Amino acid sequence: MSVESCKGGEINSQQAEAITTIAATNEYKGKSRITTLLELPWGRKWNYFRDQLLARTATTVVIVCVVIYIAIQVLTPAATPKLYAAVFDDAVSQQEAATLQSQVASKLGLPEGRKGGALIDTYFSSDENGISKLQTMIANHEIDVIVATPKTYKELSGYGYLTNLNSSLTESQRMTLSSDFVTFKGFKDSDDPDYNGSGKGKTEPFGVSMTNFKRWSTLKSAKSDAIIGIVQESQNHGIAQQFIDYLNE
């Protein structure tokens, strides 16, 4: 009688033949795991599920959850700020900008920060990278207000980023602030859009000087010659107007 190796020890030819016969007569042979699970008696279902399907099921659930999460993140855009002020030239220090942000958010009934709130961002520069950053954000309707000193403000006006305040402020604001309007040459549509922002368009009031703004003047780090204006692509003109009023309170 021959002997064969098997997990757990050795079996003889008769035992091997018996195992083969049992396997061949297995009523579930050739059926899928799901079908087998459904057809098994209740007393054997859990053990079969644990041994054959539990790990696969857990892996599938994890994969499905990850896919759903990614889809939600892609299809549900994050809320953009209701007030995004881009500050150039260190017109106010980062620390005081953070304090001002908290005060403005409280005054306007907004949360702080990027997600649907008030954000005063001092990380803007007038170099090539800074202008590219600003241009991209304006194109995405993220920036509402720009604050800068005259030299930079003149350049930004020349690029066509700012509104004519005669049309973007309220009638009351125009009456109150018109004496502080600052005019610059704007962007000429026939020019190359990549030109250096020197301004070849019509001269218009693109900004208002904050020299006489009461609240702005109380900030120790605030530059007295800073100018503020509303961005062309802003979708929050009303809140931008309220922000200007707040700085002048």
Please count the beta strands (DSSP E, at least 2 residues each): 8
Side by side, the strands of the main sheet go 4-3-5-8-7-6
| Radius of gyration of CA atoms, rounded to a whole number | 35 Å
**Span from first to last CA?**
106 Å
- H/E series, N to C? EEHHHHEHEHEHHHEEHEH
Biggest β-sheet, characterized?
Answer: 6 strands, mixed
Total helices: the number is 11
Q: What this model shows, in words?
A:
- The strands form 2 sheets. Strands 4-3-5-8-7-6 form a 6-stranded mixed sheet. Strands 1-2 form a two-stranded antiparallel ribbon.
- β3 (83-87), α5 (94-108) and β4 form a beta-alpha-beta unit.
- 27% of the residues are buried.
- The longest helix has 22 residues, at 54-75.
- It is α/β, with parallel strands linked by helices and 249 residues long.
- It starts with a strand and ends with a helix.
- 46% of the residues lie in helices and 15% in strands.
